[in-house]
Design brief:
The structure holds 2 protein chains of 2 kinds. Chain A is an alpha+beta fold. In chain A, a hairpin with a 7-residue loop joins strand 4 (about 65-70) and strand 5 (about 75-80). The model of chain A has no long low-confidence stretch (mean pLDDT about 90). Chain B is α+β, with helices and mostly antiparallel strands. Chain B has helices spanning about 1-20, 25-35, 40-45, 55-90, 105-120, 135-140, 170-180, 220-235, 290-295, 310-320, 325-330, 330-335, and strands spanning about 125, 130-135, 160, 165, 185-195, 205-215, 240-250, 250-260, 275-285, 300-310.
């Protein structure tokens, strides 16, 4: 809402600076977003009179002028290049030291400061300016010539009436009353403790012509139109509005049109009541019928657009056809034109929800619909009509027919609410007295009807405050008017204990671990295109009204959006792409791990890890290589043990996956928590990634909720013995199965088994491989003897050779 | 005679010592002069043939030579050893260490972590909720009337007629108020969505942290105190702040908190739209209708709620000028954190 500071002060006497008023408005919840001083940049320019114009002795296109800066002062000699300069003109003068806002000779039009200059040998003591140079018009062809009545010496801003400032105020949706100068003045009057002055003017009606004799109003849909009033003003002359009106409208951000339309806009900005003026002679039957639209009805609004109506719209009609969409916009068929002589003035109260639906459906938002949607005061309708009729009579020379037609079958009464003073203090943490509460509430027009001894007030809420619906709303008014700043910032004395959130701590541990191990966190969007999503799942959740087809489906897998990041980085020459993300994935049905908070949509929080490109940055001490499956497997295994999930609880198995090859499933304590694998090439191709991407996905809920109570296990205090053994087995035998065999057959003496070499080659034979383990042998109660060690080793060797058809390889 | 032998031996030692260059030379020297069968030991043997009255004087002379030799040998030995150490350490220690690749945390998570940490230390727990919400939790229970103009503020993605991508983290308030016993003191971080075109300043998804405290006797003064404590910890104790009355359907009275723009220190700049203030959060007392919708009697309990955006604050804190950079996740960006 744009407010003229000058206009505002018609209703409230403010002996305060604009800054102070702005700060007060903001404290009242009417946030001043900007203050714009009119005539900014025009400081220093004054009206002057050209006394004489002579040719420049040394330049054909220049003239030497004698200019009177102000009555009684010495004329100044000024060189001017404008073709239109002539003696007797009232012009705009800038003297040395004044900043010209726009340099017509500069390609960027940068401002410049005037100096006394000598132009082609002739002294010049200033400059006569064009409208373009001052930024007040687009005309740069010559100097700006002012009205002959302009007085030399007058400040230009004063001459142009540019001594106002505009305040841009953010009005929250609950304050429709503040979409007007009077509404804002009311709050200011309360804040400054001064009276609100309502406009006074005398409405002269032509008693010989009652309005009922010239028109009638019939409301067929009273539900959507609870009140409709009409006045008639005859013999108007449509012309430009006077300066004061044009200036007020301009300062408030509206463009003046003609005196009739300007009055309706002026009163709307004054009272907040949108008005509409019809050319009465264009109304069939010279009367108004308010009804719902017929489905399929076509209506042309005054902006020239044609709308096909659904049947729910409220239409203002004459005897034959629709002439306006109620509360939204008038029609081209009845708008005010220069030849209009008789005006029917509508002032009505339309149901907010009805206007809102219509405006939304038709995609029209007007100053009127904006106000009706939020809820205007149904009981201001006639005051606004009276005020507009008075102004119309003054500005157009028209005659106001006597009386008003007011169709208001069920008058809307002020709401009655009670407010308890102790409740006010209990909510706000204040100790306000009943007197203070009464004073604050009455200051904004709330009438205290009844005062009980128990500190309970019965209040009558004016109908311009539809937002005050219950006691808490009155408490807010008290808080707002008392001032939020005057309420204590209470730091609670009570100690509140909240148990540490173990799950949060585990997530933090997990993040730290990944980051310490060279994996960076990313945050990706959660919407992708349907075709990409289909690569990952058929169980999709999609958005009905997406921003674009690229952002239609909620990601079914973290991989779906992580790969976008991987691709982006490879496209920007990254070499090592090691990333993780914790986020939500979505499925309509969803399987294990999905939580259904709402029917039809499952959500799961997952950790995704992508490793691609180089295994590590280029260094002098390690050979460059690409990541492989063992990098991601090692990372995930170390991660799970690193955050305290014992490695022995992890079971690896070959799991099928639609996303990856070489897939390994991960279980903790027998339940599935995720998988590891290499992304399928068809998926990578879609993302235009030409490198292997290794991916791990873990269910966050499982990872962070899994118990990890630590218990001490006794370790041997006796010397350990390390022995290496190597077997030659068929290539198809898995390392894990041999390792498991060694553990089982060597227990309990064998306490650790570590793979340290795998070798395939001619020396071990075709289709064979050599696998070497380092075994640690130990006992908790004594030092093992050589004989005991040999016995264990021999049983291990026998077991492995028997089970796998392996042969022992001498080391 | 013995005098001559002592002088001669001292001269020989004086010649040999400086030429010692290696541990082998050292050993050879020790055997030649200082060992039990060495030349100094041999001098003691000749002492036997010296007249008795001369013995003390010669004894002292030989002792002195022995001590002097041992001392000079030790010095030489240390010199040789330190030279060997120096040779072993002759590497270019300006070469880089064996570095490990570092991973970084996303700046939005960093901001979120700081917020969480301040609120948890103030006794708030952390709760999460779904990103796809039903109309009831996202709007209705939060006192949004079916056609209330406040819904103009929320341009929403719909999944079904009554399912939306949540437009704020506030619906989690409804879930916890219904599910958990009082007193309730929690924050609710998470991702939210608005149907807005993507630009340098706005995105269709962003992150919020909502907060809620419901108990007996919770007041507006408590809310203000909590917010000031948070702001001073998060933005720095020297910041100026202001509270403005505002409007949210789910709180009453409502407020917005501004802090002095930390980029221009309140002088006015492009970021704060020349106002000198930055809006950092919205808050208020939980609306009685919301308490009632969640099964609580507004006459016996009260509460406050607040909510703040994480992304915009992260932009300002890290001096990022385009919100899209956050979600591009370029490694050159990530590595800066």
């Amino acid at each position: 809402m744009r407010i003229s500071f000058k206009w505002l002060q018609q209703y409230v006497e403010l002996n305060a600076s604009i800054e102070d008023v702005a700060a007060t408005l903001t404290r009242l919840g009417l946030e001043v977003e900007s203050i714009e001083l009119q005539g900014k940049g025009l400081e220093g320019f004054r009206v002057a009179e050209v006394l004489e114009v002579k040719k420049h002795p040394n330049a054909d296109r220049l003239k030497v002028c004698s200019v009177l800066p102000a009555a009684g002062q010495e004329p100044l000699q000024i060189v001017c290049g404008a073709p239109n300069v002539a003696a007797g003109q009232k012009v705009i003068l800038g003297v040395a030291g004044t900043t010209v806002p726009h340099n017509q000779h500069d390609p960027e039009g940068k401002p410049f400061v005037l100096n006394n200059a000598t132009i082609r040998g002739v002294e010049s003591k200033g400059m006569l300016c064009s409208g373009k140079e001052l930024g007040i018009s687009d005309d740069g062809s010559g100097i700006m010539v002012l009205d002959p009545s302009a007085v030399p010496g007058t400040l230009l801003t004063q001459h142009l009436g540019l001594d106002d400032c505009s305040l841009e105020i953010g009005i929250t949706p609950n304050r429709p009353d503040c979409l007007s100068h009077i509404g804002i003045a009311r709050d200011l009057a309360a804040a400054y403790g001064v009276a609100l002055k309502m406009p006074n003017g005398t409405l002269n009606e032509d008693a010989t012509r009652p309005v009922t004799a010239v028109t009638s109003v019939e409301v067929l849909n009273a539900a959507d139109c609870p009140r409709y009033t009409a006045r008639v003003i005859t013999n108007v002359t449509v012309k430009e509005s006077p300066e004061w009106m044009k200036q007020a409208l301009t300062a408030a951000g509206l463009r003046p049109i003609n005196n009739v339309v300007d009055v309706t806009n002026y009163v709307m900005l004054e009272y907040g009541q949108p008005l509409h003026a019809f050319d009465m002679d264009r109304l069939e039957g010279k009367r108004i019928v308010v009804r719902s639209a017929a489905a399929g009805e076509v209506f042309e609004t005054l902006d020239g657009k044609k709308h096909t109506l659904s049947g729910t719209e409220l239409m203002i009609c004459d005897a034959a056809r629709a002439v306006a969409i109620g509360g939204v916009m008038g029609g081209a068929n009845s708008e005010i034109s220069p030849s209009t002589t008789n005006v029917l003035l509508e002032s009505a109260y339309f149901l907010p929800t009805s206007v809102r639906k219509t405006a939304k459906r038709l995609g029209i938002s007007t100053d009127a619909s904006y106000r009706f949607e939020r809820g205007i005061d149904p009981n201001m309708t006639q005051h606004a009509s009276d005020r507009a009729a008075q102004l119309l009579a003054e500005l157009t020379g028209g005659t106001v027919a006597a009386g008003i037609i007011d169709v208001y079958p069920s008058p809307i009464q002020p709401r009655t609410l009670t407010v308890r003073v102790n409740r006010v203090n209990a909510m706000l943490g204040t100790e306000l007295s009943a007197d203070v509460v009464r004073r604050l509430l009455t200051s904004i027009g709330i009438a205290i009807k009844e005062e009980a001894t128990s500190g309970t007030f019965t209040c009558s809420i004016p109908t311009f405050r539809p937002d005050i619906e219950q006691e808490i709303d009155l408490i807010e008014e008290v808080a707002r008017l008392h001032g939020y700043d005057n309420i204590e910032n209470k730091s609670s004395g009570e100690v509140v204990f909240t148990a540490p959130d173990l799950r949060e701590q585990r997530v933090t541990e997990l993040r730290r671990w990944l980051e310490s191990n060279g994996v960076s966190e990313i945050i990706t969007n959660s919407l992708i295109d349907r075709n990409s999503a289909a690569l990952f799942s058929r169980d999709l959740v999609s958005v009905r009204n997406p921003l674009s087809a690229e952002l239609e489906v909620l990601r079914p897998s973290m991989l779906a959006t992580m790969l976008q990041t991987v691709a982006h980085n490879f496209n920007h020459s990254a070499e090592r792409v090691h990333l993780y993300e914790i986020g939500t994935v979505f499925a309509a049905a969803g399987g294990t791990g999905f939580q259904h908070y709402v029917p039809g949509v499952g959500e799961r929080s997952v950790l995704g890890i992508c490793l691609s490109g180089d295994a590590h940055s280029l260094t002098w001490h390690e050979k460059q290589r690409k990541v492989d499956i063992f990098d991601i497997k090692g990372l995930v295994t170390s991660l799970l043990t690193g955050i305290g999930l014992d490695n022995s609880n992890l079971i690896y198995y070959n799991a099928p996956s639609s996303l990856t090859e070489m897939t390994i499933g991960i279980e903790i304590n027998g339940s599935y928590v995720g998988f590891i694998g290499r992304c399928r090439p068809d998926i990578l191709k879609r993302y235009k990634i030409d490198q292997d991407v290794f991916y791990a996905e873990l269910d966050m809920n499982s990872v962070i909720s899994e118990g990890r109570n630590k218990r001490y296990r006794e370790y041997s205090r006796f010397p350990k013995v390390v022995r290496d053994v190597a077997f030659i087995v068929n290539s198809g035998v898995s390392v894990a199965s041999i390792e498991q065999q060694i553990r089982t057959s060597g227990a309990p003496a064998v306490t650790s088994v570590t793979l340290f070499d795998v070798f395939e080659g001619k020396s071990v034979g075709e289709g064979k491989k050599s696998i070497a383990f380092s075994l640690t042998l130990n006992a908790t109660e004594k030092t093992l003897t050589d004989a005991e060690i040999d016995a264990v080793l021999s049983s291990v060797i026998t077991s492995v050779t028997d089970t796998f058809g392996a042969t022992l390889r001498s080391l | 005679m013995l005098d001559h032998s002592i002088t001669e031996l001292r001269d020989a030692i004086g010649r040999d010592l400086p030429s010692i260059a290696s541990p082998d030379d050292l050993e050879r020297f020790r055997i030649t002069y200082l060992s039990r069968s060495g030349r100094i030991a041999a001098l003691y043997d000749t002492l036997k043939s010296v007249p008795k009255e001369e013995k003390p004087r010669y004894g002292q002379l030989i002792n002195a030579l022995k001590q002097e030799t041992e001392q000079r040998f030790e010095e030489r030995k240390q010199e040789i050893e330190s030279r060997a150490t120096a040779a072993r350490d002759a590497v270019d220690i300006t070469m880089p260490g064996r570095m490990r690749d570092k991973g970084t945390r996303h700046p939005i998570t960093r901001t979120m972590d700081e917020m969480k940490s301040i609120f948890t230390s103030m006794g708030f727990g952390i709760v999460y909720g779904p990103e796809v919400e039903d109309d009831y939790h996202n709007f209705e229970a939060l006192n949004f009337a079916p056609h209330h103009p406040a819904r103009d503020m929320q341009d929403t993605f719909f999944v079904k007629d009554d399912l939306v991508l949540r437009t704020h983290t506030t619906p989690v308030q409804v879930r916890v108020m219904k599910d958990r016993p009082l007193p309730l003191r929690v924050i609710m971080p998470g991702r939210v969505y608005r149907n807005e075109a993507v630009s340098a300043r706005s995105n269709y998804f962003f992150h919020q942290v909502d907060g809620l405290y419901v108990d007996k006797h919770v007041t507006f003064a408590d809310l203000k105190g909590t917010l000031v404590t948070f702001a001073k910890n998060f933005y720095g104790s020297s910041i100026q702040y202001r509270f403005r009355p505002s409007y949210f359907p789910f709180t009453e009275p409502s407020l917005e908190m501004d802090i002095t723009c930390f980029l221009c220190a309140g002088k006015g700049c492009r970021i704060c739209k020349h106002s000198g203030w930055l809006e950092v959060l919205g808050a208020g007392m939980v609306h009685p209708n919301v308490l009632r919708n969640c099964g609580h009697d507004p006459e016996s309990v009260s509460g406050y709620a607040f909510g703040m955006g994480v992304d915009r604050i992260s932009l300002l804190r890290y001096g990022v000028d385009d919100i899209r950079i956050f979600f591009e996740n370029d490694i050159r960006f990530l590595n800066q954190f």
